[in-house]
């Protein structure tokens, strides 16, 4: 039986990847960092919690010994490093914590893999945030686009990307970077813009709220569905050689377009409800993202199954259903 270890297993991507790998017959190990509310640890894993092939262990990216212990216990064939402080604006509030988890945490994991199970294949969750405001002449970012990050989070991800390439070359390890553009779902944290808009618009529709306050409406992002993107992660580790791949839809929308689409779907006028507040701006903004994933499509045959519109409808419908059942909840 193939074994995989996932850091960040209880995040959006970790939970979808767990379902995907269990379906493929893997034994899936995941690390959880201790949280005072135990229920908050695993709610995204509800559909698979208690599955005989799912093994959860306490460990932390800050705690090298705990990573060593879990690797020794699991001896995985594949390691997916999805753990991070992944919120870009919050990385300006907690830059050191972000660097330690999102940057040095990766190095701790690589070093532990090198010492304990050096033939394991390692997937690193790299990010389009690494490109900063660099765009190729044709309007896209791709594997060869220069990286000039504009946030502590982006800087930490560039460190992780580089140390992965360095370990791959230095030690001949199978380590691959997936450079993923924004990917969303109903499981997305509701302080990321897509799910914030979907959730608040659903509340407005049901009469539970009367406003939505946002930051930069002009920024554009290339938004895909997390379910499609976890399949890419797995495909990247099945390739015959370790390599780095962009994963994106190739279509970008502005935050304003996102708002218009969601409010239009709910038959609401955004001008009546949407406000902006500088508290949601970042000290330095990444303005535009649009990815070219030709390499992933051509080398591995990856395909998208969701459109932006289908994904946003799924998210809005999730929140409509949630608040109809729990009108008192704040989600
Ligand atoms: N979060 C948030 N909240 N973003 C807002 C808001 C708001 O109220 N108003 C406007 N935005 C804008 C942000 O300024 C940004 O330009 C865009 O919406 C998307 O913000 P997020 O959803 O927070 O995502 P992100 O692009 O900063 O980062 C995500 O994608 C990266 C991949 O490029 C995260 O998932 C990162 O972890 C990931 O690496």
Describe this structure in words.
- With 331 residues, this protein is α/β, with parallel strands linked by helices.
- The chain has helices spanning 12-23, 39-42, 64-74, 88-93, 95-116, 152-171, 193-205, 226-238, 255-265, 270-273, 294-300, 308-325, and strands at 3-7, 27-32, 54-58, 78-81, 121-127, 175-180, 183-184, 212-214, 220-221, 224-225, 244-247, 253-254, 274-276.
- The strands form 4 sheets. It has a 7-stranded parallel sheet, sandwiched between helices.
- α1 links the parallel β1 and β2 (27-32).
- The protein starts with a strand and ends in a 6-residue tail after the last helix.
- The protein has 2 domains: 3-183 and 224-247, Rossmann fold, CATH 3.40.50; 190-221 and 253-286 and 307-325, UDP-galactose 4-epimerase, domain 1, CATH 3.90.25.10.
- α5 runs parallel beside α6 (152-171), α7 (193-205) packs parallel to α9 and α9 packs across α12.
- It contains 12 helices and 13 strands.
- The mean pLDDT is 97.
- 43% of the residues lie in helices and 15% in strands.
- The structure holds guanosine-5'-diphosphate-alpha-D-mannose (GDD).
- Guanosine-5'-diphosphate-alpha-D-mannose is lined by residues 86, 88-89, 127-129, 181-182, 191-193, 196, 214-216, 219, 221, 255, 280, 282, 289.
Main attributes of the structure:
about 325 residues, alpha/beta, Rossmann fold, UDP-galactose 4-epimerase, domain 1, 2 domains, two-stranded parallel ribbon, 13 strands, binds guanosine-5'-diphosphate-alpha-D-mannose
